[in-house]
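Dear colleague,

Thank you for sharing your sequence with our group. We've completed the structure prediction you requested, and as agreed, I am returning the results in plain text so they can be pasted directly into your records. Please verify that the sequence below matches your submission; if there's any discrepancy, let me know and we will rerun it promptly.
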Amino acid sequence: MSTDYQRAREELGRRLRELRVECPDGRLTGTELAERLGWPQSKVSKVENGRQTPTDDDLRAWVEATGQAAVLGELRARLRGFESHIRSWRRQLASGHRPVQETWNAVVADARTLHVWESSIVNGLLQTADYARHIFERHAELQKSPPDAEDAVRARMKRQEWLYRPGKRLNLLMWEGALRAETCPPEVLAAQLDRLAGVVGMDTVRLGIVPLDAALRLSPSNAFWVLDNRLVITEDWHAELWLDDVETVGLYRRVWETFAESAVFGGEAQQVIARVRRSIRV
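Please find the predicted structure tokens below.
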């Protein structure tokens, strides 16, 4: 968990503790507040000490129980402030993958230039529907989220229209291992690689492949997107991170440029894709 995120969560906890202590009808102990809320006392403690992120409903209940409803707006602003950077999959996927894909569609639609690094799967802007379907199904199983693969696939395919709009540019680097990962049946992977080879040379796409035997200055790490040099989106198993401070965006661009030094493009990239394609037994 990022230091900035944890610090913001602790500050919110301290503010909530102040509301408990400064309750208009008399100071409340943590146990007394828990009784009013119908919560375990341990939840009050975790929230106040920054070990648990309160929900919007939790904040509303807290200010009502402490008789200070007027500060709800402030607390919500604090919550939005740090949750905009750390977006847990548990919360995002509560209604399935489709809403997450629609959020991505809106964010990408506003961007003109993308710099993307993919280390484990084919990038969503270039996925076939069958490949995307297998990705969504397996992640829904992992996250125990509502199974809505078909709706999620349609939303992801909608986003690919971005590639055919004037003025857009996808600068995509992919680790060769992402081409070889059998996260779907062989025939689906083979068709996906055919699709990938077909985009080499598109006006809006610059595709680079980092071969497995390439010399690397950095180890292949988590995938990330840099949108117009103003926003970075990356993810881990528990959450998606949205990072917009200038220093961090600059760092990720340097990482991208470093991987680009090890990549091959154009015909050489097609050769790598073709080599992987030939290795698949359909």
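Summary note from our side: The longest strand covers residues 169-175.

Kind regards,
the structure core
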